[in-house]
Specification:
Monomer. The protein is built from twelve helices and 15 strands. The protein has 391 residues and is α/β, with parallel strands linked by helices.
């Protein structure tokens, strides 16, 4: 009988699990621990900034890695991510999912987190619509992926363009977190004794309250219901926005409940808005992973952890955005849910930024037809919407 390879930490090699991802990653882990390629791509960790063994920022001068498309991934694999606390949490959630598929990776330095500053992170004083749209949160990450500086990248799926750049593919999505929005109240609102009964969640906001939001979708729905409110731009990560409300700079803000939960900050959600009260952004609460389009092996492996429910709803929601040619300039909401017996319900909304125009529609169909459902509802909304909304 041939000698079985032995792993570091005295772990005896066992037959890899059945899924393609676990099988390939475990073979790669075995090769990594032996210190030889053994037919599998292999790379020793490179020292990063400050001598830390993990590469925290990709080296722009490093030669791209080519020719590994048909083989198991090289170890360690480089994961591109933004550097915000929420982005890092989401990246580690994805890596934990991979490690759960292949437990042997828990004992190896199998991944390198590569924090990449994006244009959207650097421009904090304006709405994304004014500086180039949601793609600014992914532009530099896409470039690192295409250059071979990272092997795959983790995103908030709502921040990804509906049409990805040539050479980039969406490889998988993880299970959706709660997609609802939440109102965070400042001290002035609480001192005023305002409550939020179930029938009117916006009553927690006093007349004329100043609400900080960078989302034209949230602003449009808020002003449609409460035209007395004032909205001004607030940017920055979740903690920054919370601190600006706490300091009294704004009376309130709206944030995704998913982000608050992932960061352990759900207690700051004073009022949680049902999807019918405020339609969420398309793909809100879903983590998406991108790879190079020609990296067939990695794409096939990541398919093993693609959550079927999030796949179906995101296909519908992104198809709707594509049909509307949706961007950060247009207030659009989309939220799909799976129903019993293989059905899918999609609710969508489009509005003017000042809330003076708003239409909402809901349709149902077979979940396997998710892209068609999204496309047809988007086309219907496009026909019913005044041209100036898209200007």
């Amino acid at each position: 009988m041939a000698d079985r390879p032995r792993l570091r930490h005295d772990l005896t090699w066992k037959a890899p699990p059945a899924t393609p991802l676990a099988r390939a990653l475990c073979y790669a882990a075995a090769a990594f621990s032996k210190g030889s390629s053994n037919g599998v791509g292999f790379r020793h960790p490179q020292p990063g900034a400050g001598g830390h063994p993990a590469l925290r920022h990709p080296d722009p001068g490093q030669a791209p890695r080519r020719g590994l498309r048909s083989h198991a991934p090289a170890i360690p694999m480089r994961v591109g991510t933004r550097g915000s606390p929420l982005a890092l949490f989401q990246t580690r959630t994805f890596l934990d999912r991979i490690r759960a598929v292949c437990p042997v990776l828990r004992n190896l330095d199998a991944f390198e987190e590569c924090e990449i500053a994006t244009s959207g992170d650097r421009a904090q004083e304006k709405r994304l619509a004014e500086i180039g749209g949601k793609g600014l949160f992914a532009k530099e990450i896409h470039e690192a992926l295409l250059d071979g500086r990272v092997d795959f990248a983790v995103h908030s799926l709502k921040d990804l363009e509906t049409e990805l750049p040539p050479g980039i593919a969406l490889a998988c999505t993880l299970r959706r977190e709660d997609a609802r929005d939440a109102i965070v109240l400042g001290a002035a609102c609480r001192r005023g004794g305002f409550s939020s009964p179930a029938w009117d969640p916006f009553s927690a906001l006093p007349p004329g309250a100043l609400v900080g939001t960078a989302s034209v979708r949230r602003q449009a729905q808020l002003l449609h219901t409460r035209p007395d409110l004032r909205c001004e731009v607030i940017r920055g990560n979740v903690q920054t926005r919370l601190s600006r409300v706490a300091s009294g700079e704004f009376d309130a803000t709206l944030l995704a409940l998913a982000g608050l939960r992932r960061l352990g900050l759900e207690a700051h959600a004073d009022v949680v808005l049902d999807e019918e009260e405020m339609v969420p952004a398309a793909c809100q609460g879903i983590i998406g992973v991108t790879v190079r389009e020609d990296d067939v092996a990695l794409r096939e492996m990541l398919t093993a952890i693609w959550d079927p429910a999030s796949k179906a709803v995101s296909l519908a929601e992104r198809a709707l955005l594509r049909a509307l040619d949706g961007s950060c300039r247009t207030p659009i909401g989309a939220h799909a849910v799976l129903l019993p017996e293989g059905r899918l319900r999609l609710t969508a909304l489009i509005a003017r930024g000042d809330g003076s125009f708003l239409i909402r529609r809901t349709v149902e169909g077979a979940a396997e037809d998710a892209p068609r459902i999204g496309r047809e509802l988007g086309e219907e909304l496009y026909r019913e919407t005044p041209a100036d909304v898209f200007a």
